[in-house]
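FYI - complex with DP6, inputs then prediction.
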Amino acid sequence: MADNKVYRASTTAPVNIAVVKYWGKRDPKLNLPTNSSISVTLSQADLRTLTTASCSASFDGDSLTLNGQASDISGARTQACFRELRARRAALEAADSSLPKLSTLPLKIVSENNFPTAAGLASSAAGFAALVRAIANLYELTDSPSELSLIARQGSGSACRSLFGGYVAWRMGDKADGTDSKADLISEASHWPNMRALILVVNAAKKDVPSTSGMQQTVATSGLFQQRISQVVPANMILMEEAIRKKDFPQFAEVTMRESNSFHACAADTYPPIFYMNDASRAAIRAVEAINAQAGKTIAAYTYDAGPNCVIYFLEEDEATVVGAFHRFLSGVSGWKASAAEAKSSVELPENIAGILKDGVGRVIQTGVGEGPEKTDEFLIAEDGQTVQR
Ligand code: DP6
């Protein structure tokens, strides 16, 4: 009788938000970037992907279900991840004939986010990191997170940074085959554990240009971008690593804001131009400037990815000042933690700014720096191979 045993493994993986931005590919096929980048991994208590990977001879071909919907796995990125992970498992099987030949079995993957997809938060980073980590667990690969980041990078560039918690660098590398373009840890979350993030989820009227095509248009048409990759980013990488190592928030904040501005300036310098920020995004920048001006020092930093949502980094000791300034007029939107109502802030935001934010912000997420992927006994696929209905 054929062995129809179902093998399975589960993991969670976090979202990360870059403070030195990845924007531009030097090799779209291998997903190699034009510059290095740095991110902060956010807590999985608030934002995480849970993925179960399983394999069995009883499955009918490879499949992937995301948030209850069958997902197309024929794309080159998902195929590259499957192929590389299977090759690593096959190498283990070749070295030890007692191992079951999992590399030859169909894969069934089921994945869920604990945050609404409608929030418009980039979930591809957590998604591909979880996919790669879950299959690596299933195959009992001994590869380090950095080695696995080489695979996750081919799913989505920013995903390579979600294989670690804390403060993470993606080193661009210079080899043509991409074997040195991988993530590594700058500092554990515990090194600077009081980093917090407030995410203002902004209502978007239309769909943004996807990051993959947006960055390729920038590479092809922006002159400013050449200066960014040759001078701006290399300098910011040094400053940001130093700021993290020294736990120097003002330096961390200034580089974070300059990086966001530089990336969005390059988007605007793309021909035709790409605009990710809207009126509410720009109002949030003014709000952060007002907070810093009234505090008399830099206690908050804004950053934006390929969309209008604002991520504001600050330290726990400044939570009342920063969170209170926004909660005062955004108390009606969902997502606040109970403590936000008690946050007393001396900061008064100008009325016109508060008004635009009130109209434009749909919900908030309060979170902070967090840990990398974690193995879990929570399964989205049952022992018999059936998808768990939730
Ligand atoms: C603006 O990782 O989504 O968030 O590699 O094409 O999948 P692909 O791009 P993706 O780009 C993210 C860009 C960014 C900045 C960043 O996360 O560094």
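The mean pLDDT is 96. The first strand starts at residue 7 and ends at 14.
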